[in-house]
Amino acid sequence: MELYFIRHGQSENNANWQDPNYAESPDPELTQKGIEQARLLAEFISARQQLQSTDWNAQNRLGFGLTHVYASLMSRAVKTAAPTAQALGLPFAAWVDIHEEGGIFSRGDKTKLVGLPGKPRSFFEQHYPEFALPDSLDETGWWNRPFETDEERQPRADRFFAEFLKRHGDQPGRPEHRVAIFSHGGFFMRLMCSMLNLPWKQASNQLQSWFLLHNASISRFDFRQNDLVICYLNRTDHLPDHLIT
Q1: Cβ neighbours of residue 101 under 8 Å, at least 6 residues apart?
Q2: What is the pLDDT of residues 24-54, one digit of tens each?
Q3: For residue 200, what is the domain's CATH number?
């Protein structure tokens, strides 16, 4: 089984994070750069979707052969994933637990972060009719709960990873699954800690660790019997220099 972790394209918050006068959005949209990143990503993967060989293909030079596409319910992830899912004609589904840290929350008062509803079912049905939604999502919004605390974040990543292996791990008599998830930089760090059993942000010699991801980058993980193989991280060769953000 293969897992492709794809970070969303550049969001409005990403583009303005150094501007002290910018008011952060609880659920930012993609910028024009982000939209272009998503388009080029879809073109890159769809042009290489067909597998040319059954040999191990660790750099995808012989194709991707994706079988499933998931996205978090945050706008920037869905809008990045949609062009790829549409180009490939693959099942395209929400996976709530791959959202960014904190969830959907007000950004104004840093001392009192308040959870907000998030987009309702009708929004996704209108803009992404092919996007499979959880039965629990209604018009009250997909988040609709308090700000996610630090203590809740790693257990969420652990829960996702266990469910992912259960749902997509290799099984006798079933074709191999090659799964793309469109998610977020903070969640990627949590997922790396879950997959590799790492302490949160702790490296040796009192250093703090972080796995950097560029917008619309691809990272690949292979699961072979009892082995986890990291094939590559933060791949951006599908983007021109001016779109590496």
Answers
A1: 148, 153, 184, 186, 187, 190
A2: 999 999 999 999 999 999 999 999 999 998 8
A3: 3.40.50.1240
Query: How far is residue 113 from each of residues 103, 110, 152, 153, measured CA to CA in Å?
Result: 11, 6, 15, 16
- If we measure between CA atoms, which residue out of 49, 32, 42, 33 comes closest to residue 6? 42
- State how far the Cα of 72 lies from the Cα of 100, in Å rounded to an integer: 8
DSSP code for 17: T
Instruction: Count CB neighbours of 99 within 10 A.
Output: 24
Place of tokens 């609709």: 144
Contact 43, 37 (CB under 8 A): no
pLDDT digits (tens, 9 = 90+) for 171-217: 999 999 999 999 999 999 999 999 999 999 999 999 999 999 999 99
User: How many structural domains compose the chain?
Assistant: 1
Give the whole-angstrom CA distance, residue 82 versus residue 191: 22
235 in Cβ contact with 216 (< 8 Å): no
Burial zone of 212 (CB within 10 Å; 0-12 exposed, 13-18 middle, 19+ buried): exposed
Helix (H, G, I), strand (E, B) or coil at 189: helix
* This prediction's pTM: 0.96
- CA dist., res. 113 & res. 108, Å (int): 8
Domain range for 94 is 2-243
On whether the CB atoms of residues 69 and 82 are closer than 8 A, the answer is no
Question: What single letter denotes the amino acid at residue 238?
Answer: H
CA–CA distances in Å: residue 56 to residues 64, 106, 221:
11, 46, 13
